[in-house]
Amino acid sequence: MNRIEIYDTTLRDGTQSEDVNLSAEDKLRITQRLDDLGVTYIEGGWPASNPTDRRYFEEIGNYTLKHARVSAFGSTHNARTTPENDPNIQSLLDARTNVLTIFGKTWDIHVRDALRVPLERNLELIHNSLAYLRDEVAKLFFDAEHFFDGYKANPEYALACLHQAHEAGVDALVLCDTNGGSLPQEIAEIMAVVQKELPQASLGIHAHNDSELAVANSLQAVQSGATHVQGTINGYGERCGNANLCSIIPNLELKQGHKCLPENHLPKLTQTALYISEVANVQAFHRQPFVGRSAFAHKGGIHVSAVRRNPRTYEHIEPETVGNKQRILLSDLAGQSNILFKAKQYGYHLDKNDPFVLELLSQIKERESNGYEYSAAEASFELLLNRTLGRARKYFTLLGFRVTDEKRQENKDPYSEATVMVQVGGVTEHTAAAGEGPVNALDNAMRKALEKFYPTLTEMHLLDFKVRVLPPQRTSDGKEGTASNVRVLIESGDSQSRWITVGVSYNIIEASWQALEDAINYKLFKNDQLKIEQAMAQARTET
Amino acid sequence: MNRIEIYDTTLRDGTQSEDVNLSAEDKLRITQRLDDLGVTYIEGGWPASNPTDRRYFEEIGNYTLKHARVSAFGSTHNARTTPENDPNIQSLLDARTNVLTIFGKTWDIHVRDALRVPLERNLELIHNSLAYLRDEVAKLFFDAEHFFDGYKANPEYALACLHQAHEAGVDALVLCDTNGGSLPQEIAEIMAVVQKELPQASLGIHAHNDSELAVANSLQAVQSGATHVQGTINGYGERCGNANLCSIIPNLELKQGHKCLPENHLPKLTQTALYISEVANVQAFHRQPFVGRSAFAHKGGIHVSAVRRNPRTYEHIEPETVGNKQRILLSDLAGQSNILFKAKQYGYHLDKNDPFVLELLSQIKERESNGYEYSAAEASFELLLNRTLGRARKYFTLLGFRVTDEKRQENKDPYSEATVMVQVGGVTEHTAAAGEGPVNALDNAMRKALEKFYPTLTEMHLLDFKVRVLPPQRTSDGKEGTASNVRVLIESGDSQSRWITVGVSYNIIEASWQALEDAINYKLFKNDQLKIEQAMAQARTET
Fold first, then answer.
1. How far apart are CA B447 and CA B102, in angstroms?
2. Nearest-by-CA chain B residue for A310
3. Distance, CA of A313 to CA of A303 (rounded, Å)
4. Least Cα separation, residue A255 to chain B (angstroms)
5. pLDDT of residue B63
């Protein structure tokens, strides 16, 4: 078993991702979260490159971290000056991080085309920059930019660059596959040469995912002796992203017996990944390995029945080891076993030939053929299940609604208004409300009508709203264009949980209404369930 | 150089993905597109498992494919009967595909826990099923489900399963890493044993991405002698997905000199991937290697300037080889050249520093920051361009509209009605129309009002309607859920052409209105252009 240094560069290389833009405050929050996860190093940014990073380094000194050490990133000194007089090098010292990472060119075409200095001069830049900084900080790393491409083009020169850095006394030579074009066997072959050349040096890897091989290349590097792995959370990064630490860490710890995080910290991984995608305001990729929403989701009918008997049959690890959990999806592929599983969660032990199961199954299949998507809307399914079980009561009856969008000037937004008439018990409520768009107006009018009967609805909020126009050919009667079916998914939440409901119609207002209605019913149903459980707990304590 | 059989299972294993649900029509369209790309085999589905797949196999016989052969998928015969009497096996023959793939258990715990038969009996199921089908089809493949996990648990048994299939005369033994938990070196070690055991057998690989290693494992398998690779477009599939053919194919062809597709077909890859994500109605993953929108997008300032001098400095391959293209982010150049190019099409030769260009550019940037997407809506862009050039005339003025959706019974659809007031020349028109949903009603009322002035509008039809809820902007004022911005894309067409227009608002009715308005204006503008060209042609012939 080996200790592997995890060097996170989400805050620096990760922000090169097209859709990732972080403020200094975002970076401070993410730093604390990464420290809590327990990575070894957190690359905070490049102080010379922008004001955000400068502000970050001014602030971060005021935080005490439990596990990680923050590092600053910069390039070798400018060829026209010396380290002492290079503002970029000085800004690194001003960052006062005590850990620094310097990147330098190791690919001859870059020295010529990008840096535009003689090859010899670049060797000096590497050596002088690192030698100057060596005694200023506790840890000093050298990122050998484009090392693998450089080696393929001019091995002697690429290795000469490493020698310069090694002689300057860096703590690790980090070999970068900057363009993400290398294959695992190339990593293995080239690293074998490097180890022969520099047997004393400790090596690191910095991989990019342009060939969808960044994780494999990082694991190969560790196999070839690397003890320092650079990457980002969720694989954020320029182009196709950096090596994904959310996959590298569990692979190293669970499958190869290495240690990357403090004892028992691995279960924090999924929440950390989600938190960072929230702060970065990037939609989480549901198929992401280990930490994704679908990573342990089972849809196929056979799989579901097998997984219920023995999870290992279709899961390579226990979801809980990385803080994730198993999900059973519904779909016309899935069949009875899914329904049995869900029913069981509500305390119903049903047989797969139970007429109730068969009825519910045919209902679901028919609705899914009309575009309802229960695998994405579990709350709507649970309502359907509990209604068919005669368990969910009817909380209100809609007598009618009217939604109006009125535009009275070419460049002004329309005015949206909704009226709703509902009946609760014997009482009829007739309300009206405006809103930002028709669905919002309808939602506002609904709440106005129902909150006096069900005050807990004030706890509930709409979190997300998704619309899909279903491919026209799905609607049998050849409707086209604006008349094809629309599926609306609404995600709602309160302080305890989040739930997704679905509606389908050729009319987007009707589809939205169905999803809103389910969302409200689910909230009220959930409250009743809670009351029942509390009452039962009460009863148990009394007896 | 080796020929590698590409076996696409997007239509079968791909639909196990949480968000992928395909109708029979979708599957037929995707089949034609995969054939055009030139994969070797297309696994159409599992005829016994659901009506969609049955319908697909009824239809697909009527299509002639240029490159690919369609295969049907199913399991070994039921233990309680014989192949002759097993409806699942018979449904495979009914599919009449001439290529069949049978999967069987090779992991002892699955035989016990999932199949629930003695290990010996499973060996018979494999042999009998394949021997029975061998002479019925031209190509017969065996998917050795869970082979790698099975081998790790009980090597003798896993190999015994392969022997049964081999003796039955299958064309390839496809080794499956069903749970996606294996590492490349395990693939290498285990495949070395298999090749020693079965030197005559041709081998295939079927990998899943649960460890983010599916591409690496597939490449390793080819290195270890596999000549048949199974996977899906965009890596769709259960949990974390299947091995991604969009990465495997270019890696094999561009980096390892294998042949997977017909000569010069690789540039079709990006469009194929996009088309299939459209039909599957799944948002394309922008960081996806090779074919993703960001795969060759450069954001970092240094990178951008270097890439302009020499693309190879930050690109592992030429984007065009896979039909993708370089994108420079945070840079006016892309936008400018696009404007110059379009203006030229309308006979305007502009300089990139022309104040008109700069003004239009800032207009576009501002609108794109609000969610307008002109790369997807060329017609709206051309209108904007020609308006700024003072060339597109104003065909009508909207004085106002009102759209009403009224529901008067809980289980009845709402009634949608729209009124529109427009002015054309001095004349005011005030019309009303019903429709299937609010947008359709608005469209109907608009046409009613305008067709008497512009009869050619009767030639025009709405072909497609797309809605996307945009992620709340970081700069937003805290609007959430139903109040976040909505982008509507409308595709319209007449006998000559098709055009796409865009609208954006927090109000879906307003966004739809904007797209409808552009669609109608573009049609009228197009007619005027045509008249001008005809008049000029006329003039030329007369002189």
1. 56
2. B113
3. 8
4. 8
5. 95
Q: How far apart are CA A310 and CA B482, in angstroms?
A: 41
Tell me if A241 sits within 8 A of A17, measured CB to CB: yes
pLDDT for residue A475:
37
Give contacts of A 268-307 with B, CB under 8 A: 281, 283, 285-290, 292-303, 305-306
The boundaries of every CATH 3.20.20.70 domain in chain B are: 5-279
pLDDT in tens, A244-293: 999 999 999 999 999 999 999 999 999 999 889 878 878 789 999 999 98
Angstrom distance (rounded) from CA A280 to CA A27: 9
> Which residues neighbour A155 within 8 Å (Cβ) at sequence distance 6 or greater?
A193
Interface of B with A in 178-197 (CB under 8 A): 178-181, 183-185
Question: Which sign does the torsion angle of CA B403, B480, B284, A300 carry?
Answer: negative
Interatomic CA distance for residues A476 and A483, integer angstroms? 12
Query: Kind of pairing, strands B415-424 and B427-435?
Result: antiparallel
pLDDT of A27 > 90? The answer is: yes
B423: pLDDT strictly greater than 90:
yes
Topology given in CATH for the domain delimited by B5-279 = TIM Barrel (3.20.20)
Inter-residue long-range contacts of A366-371, CB under 8 Å, 24+ positions, other chains counted: A367/A504, A368/A331, A368/A332, A368/B21, A369/A332, A370/A485, A370/A504, A371/A470, A371/A474, A371/A485, A371/A487, A371/A504
> Residue B128 corresponds to which tokens in the numbers above?
């009998």
Whether residue A113 lies within 8 A of chain B, CB to CB, comes out as yes
Question: A342-366: per-residue pLDDT in tens?
Answer: 777 777 788 877 888 888 888 887 7
Q: What whole-number distance in Å separates Cα of residue A465 and Cα of residue B186?
A: 44
If you search the block for the tokens 């309160």, which residue do you land on? Answer: A494
H/E/C letters for each residue in A443-512? HHHHHHHHCCCCHHHHHCEEEEEEEEECCHHHCCCCCCHHHCCEEEEEEEECCCCEEEEEEEECCHHHHH
Q: From CA A407, how far away is CA A508, in angstroms rounded?
A: 19
Q: Which of B145, B197, B193, B204 is nearest to B171 (CA)?
A: B204
Judge whether A335 and A327 are in contact, CB under 8 Å.
Answer: no
Q: Record the tokens describing residue B170, joined without a space.
A: 């299958």
Average pLDDT over residues A292-311: 78
Q: How many Cα atoms are found within 13 Å in the side-chain-facing hemisphere of B318?
A: 5
Task: Please tell me which of the candidates A181, A443, A482 has its beta carbon nearest to residue B482.
Answer: A443
Q: How far apart are CA A177 and CA A179, in angstroms?
A: 6
Please give the torsion angle defined by the CA atoms of residues B185, B186, B192 and B194, in that order, rounded to the nearest 10 degrees: -160
Q: How far apart are CA B239 and CA A481, in angstroms?
A: 33
Check whether A469 has a pLDDT greater than 80. no
Whether the predicted pLDDT of B476 surpasses 50: no
Which has more confidence, A172 or B382?
Answer: A172
The answer to whether B493 faces chain A, any CB pair under 8 Å, is no
The end-to-end CA distance of chain A, in Å, is 53
Over 80: is that where the pLDDT of A196 sits? yes
Measure the CA–CA gap between A377 and A490, rounded to whole angstroms: 8
* Per-residue confidence (pLDDT) for residue A33, from 0 to 100: 95
For residues B297 and A131, the model is more confident at A131
Residue A223: is its pLDDT beyond 90? yes
Helix H or strand E segment including A61: none
